Each structure stands twice: as structure tokens, then as C-alpha cells.
Amino acid sequence: MYQTTPPNCVLMIKLLPFFFLTLSIFAPSIFLAQGLGIPTKQEDQRYLIYKPEQEELEASKMKILFISKKNYERNQTKNSRDISPDEGAMDLVNYDFGGSVRRLLRKAGYTDSTRKILRQNGNTCYLDSEIKNIKVYMVAKSPSPYSTPLFFVADFEVEWKIKTIYGELLYAHQYKGETKELRTEDYEKDEIMTETLAEGLKASMVKMMRDEGTIEALKKQEPSTDSLSQLTLAAPGSSPSSPAEAQQATVTVKVGDGHGSGFFVSQDGYILTNYHVVVNQKENLEILTGEGETYKATFVRSDPENDLALLKVEAEPAFAFSLPSEKNYSLGNSIFAIGTPKSIELGQTLSRGIVSGERKVGENKLLQIDASINSGNSGGPIISADGKLVGIVNSKLVGLGIEGIAFGTPAYKLMEFLKIELE
Fold first, then answer.
1. Which member of 41, 250, 373, 422 lies 3.0 to 4.6 Å from 109 by CB, making a disulfide possible if both were Cys?
2. Model confidence, pTM
3. Residue 22 φ/ψ, nearest 5 degrees
4. Is the CB of residue 117 less than 8 Å from the CB of residue 177?
């Protein structure tokens, strides 16, 4: 006896297309994540900014091969041969593979579109990719590479890296770049080769974003200072009472071939600077004073979330800044920034401005100033007209038409962030 499909089942089958259409309208995030192959960002994960160090991909480093359609379908590449530049090897055009990667990240929620300037350091990572060992196959019916190929396929490797915003490596993995067959019916040869590599990059990215190592690396981290014990420093013997004395409490932090700025905060040689100044050279730090003295510095502790680092030298400074426990500035107050802009020869340079505003980043505040800030000023003090410490420089906005927008951490938060006290 044959069993027929119950009427209610038939009705459900007929309604399935409508059901999926409804889901695609009212639950787009589900279909978005599945369609892209990238898991949507979770609340406990960090934001991700695609920032590849490989800014250019040289066509000369590719191996371009010609293969017949017959051999390709048989999965035989032994008869393929190199295509020399004179025979029609191609150049990359419109090299912007990153655009498609950024679009995928944005659609999956990994781009914080609400904050384009002030980002939480511990809640943001950089994504880097390096394409290498590239082979591009031109597959055609004709045995001649001068004929129009039917399609292109690419075989290459992509190394993906997830880093902190300071460049510290969190996770790295290498994947094959798998591409679909891209035909030349609607494209020029150069365009389709570029598109082929872009497709492979996106395919490898999907694998990377589903990797357990990636998922683990993107988890939000607890503030690094949570594990720090309270550290007691010797109170300054003499605190600056003028910009001239404040200059004597300011130092240059030499890091390899580069440098930043810093300042004494205790009588026993402790110095504050930015974490991004010292992160890559913690074991090889030198301090240069305005009097021309040089000291080897020891890295003591840091607060990466607020871009702070504490160093130590064996010296007793003539002046050291007192760290305030309460807010000691107001909007519009005159301030000075001290540091070593561009060159070590310009140590302890003084620039003038005002307090332009206060900005909130997560649960913390940043001090906005309009004083002239240049590379090398990072980690230098922001002071009042009477030499009192107001903040520490940590960044500025750079770009066409942007002037006088710099930021620092308020001085009254420094002891709390680094868990230090004075006696």
C-alpha cells in the first residue's frame, strides 16, 4: 500500500520559499554571516581593522603559466609552461584587494563605524596579510598563449596575522588562496588576473576568520594592570614651578633608531612615557637628559590600554613632576607640551596651546589640546603655565587639512592606571 504525503506537509513544502524569504528580510544577520562564511562579531570579541603591510604586489614576482584546457581538466599541470613578459605576461591593475576584505569585515560587524578617531586600544586589533608564491594559470582551448584564454585560476599562499594596535603578534597562520574559474568574456586579461587574486584572498580570509586560533586571539582581554601590585615611588625632591624647570624634568627616550619623549616622576629615577614608544625595544632603552647625560633604562611596567609605560634609571633628577590626584585643568586653560619632535637634536622643545576639550574613550578620558605635536613628542609632558603636570602626550591627528588636534592622558589618572603611589 502506497503512502501519500499528508496535506499539511504539502502545504509546508509550498510555503518554504516564503519562509526563507521572510527570514532573509527579518533576520538578515543570519543570512549575512552564512553567505559570507565569516562569523558575525560577538560581544566578547575585539574590533578588527585591515591594515596590510604589503602595500604593493609586484606582478614581476608572479609566475604566470599557460596550460591547455584539456590538461587542466585532467588535473595535469606538468605540461604547463612559463609565459614571459614578451609573450603577454600581465600587470596588476586597480590593486585594492583590501577593499573587498574591509567590506566583509564591516558587514560582519568587525568595523566600529561609530568611532573613526578615538578607539579603545585593548578592544581593537589589526589584521595583516601577505600574498606570496603566486602562480596564475591561463587556461585555453588553443595551444597558443596569444589566443584569448577561457578562464584564469590562481594558486598562491596568504599569511594572515592578527596584531595589537602596537604591532604585537597575537596569531598568525598561512592558507592556500583558492580561486574559482574567472572567465575573460567581460574583462581584459589584466583585470581578470587582479580579480582572481582578490577572490583567492577573500576565500583564505573566510578560513582564517573561522580558525580557532583567530577566534581566541580576538577575545577581549582583561586590563593588563589588573595583575599589578601597588608600586611605591620616592616623592620628587623638587617639582617644576615654571616651564624652564619642567624642561629639566623632561627626557628623550631613545629606542633603536627612533625615539620618543618622557619625564621624571620620582626622586629615585622613575620615568613615564608612552607604551607605543617602547613596546618593540623593552630590553634596549636609553634616556637622554637635557644636560646631555645618557642612562640605560629598565622597563618596569605598562598599561597598554591607556598607552602608558614606566621606566627606571639609576639617577636622581634635579626636578621631577608631582602626580596630581585630582583634575587640575579646565577647558580653555593655557598649556605647554614638551618633547623631542623629529630629531634628538630638538630635545626638550616647548610648544604652546590650550585645553581644547575632553573626550571619552570607553570608561576613560582623553585630554584634547591644540599645541604643536610631531613624531617624537609621544610620551612628553603637558604642563600648565606654572610648570605643573596636566597630562602626557600620546597621539595626534594627521591628514590633509587637519591641524592642531592632539590628545593626551590626564595626569590625575596616571597613578590609578599604573597602580603607583608616592611616599
1. 41
2. 0.79
3. -60, -45
4. no
State the number of CA atoms in the 13 A half-sphere of 5 facing the CB: 8
> Could you tell me the end-to-end alpha-carbon distance of the chain, in angstroms, rounded to an integer?
95
CA-CA distance, 420 to 149, in Å (whole number)? Answer: 68
Report whether 378 contacts 365 (CB < 8 A).
no
Q: HSE of 291 in the Cβ direction (CA atoms, 13 Å)?
A: 9
What is the dihedral angle through the alpha carbons of 384, 316, 407, 43, rounded to the nearest 10 degrees?
Answer: -140
* CA distances in angstroms from 259 to 287, 292, 342, listed in the order given: 10, 15, 9
CB atoms within 10 A of CB 282: 15
18: number of Cβ within 10 Å: 9
State the residue for C-alpha cell 640605560.
296
> Would you state the cell numbers that stand for residue 325, as one nine-digit string?
590626584
All three cell numbers of 20: 526563507
Tell me: the pLDDT tens digits for 147-158? Answer: 667 788 888 899
